[in-house]
Amino acid sequence: MLQTRVIPCLLLKHLGLVKTVKFNDPTYLGDPINIVKIFNDKEVDELIFLDITATVENTNPPFSLLAKITTECFMPLGYGGGIRRIQDVERILSLGVEKIVINSYARRGPVIHHSRRRLRRSQAVVVSIDVKKNLANRYEVFTQSVRKLPV
Description:
By secondary structure, this protein is of the alpha/beta class. Helix content is 26%, strand content 28%. The protein is built from 4 helices and 9 strands. It has helices at 32-42, 63-72, 86-94, 110-118; strands spanning 9-13, 16-21, 24-30, 47-51, 77-80, 99-102, 125-127, 130-133, 139-142. A hairpin with a 2-residue loop joins strand 1 and strand 2 (16-21). The longest helix has 11 residues, at 32-42. It starts with 8 loop residues before the first strand and ends in a 9-residue tail after the last strand. The relative contact order is 0.14.
């Protein structure tokens, strides 16, 4: 029998946590470390951090912040945002993050397939898809935090 799991998805923007409504108007929530401590107390099953600015601003994942988060987090942890190379994936996993969440990077097809073969823990790669309804009430897939339609 399936059991309900609680997996909060937290949005990072410039090293702080934010909340959005339909991917717009981010509102600052607080320091990621404090939020991790709260979720530790709540005993959630897993945490996912998505950096909503890293890909758009062409910055690297916040490796030092991820290192701090993994020392405080007592549940499985996933991260996505700014991942462009297999070296980014390997470094994030070496910090103690269990899952890599990819979105824009997944569109590269053969690159991600080759990257998964190099990873010993290929089950650690999760593909995220941003979907939004258009004016015709049809779903469209976007990348880069719903800023660009895929080609």
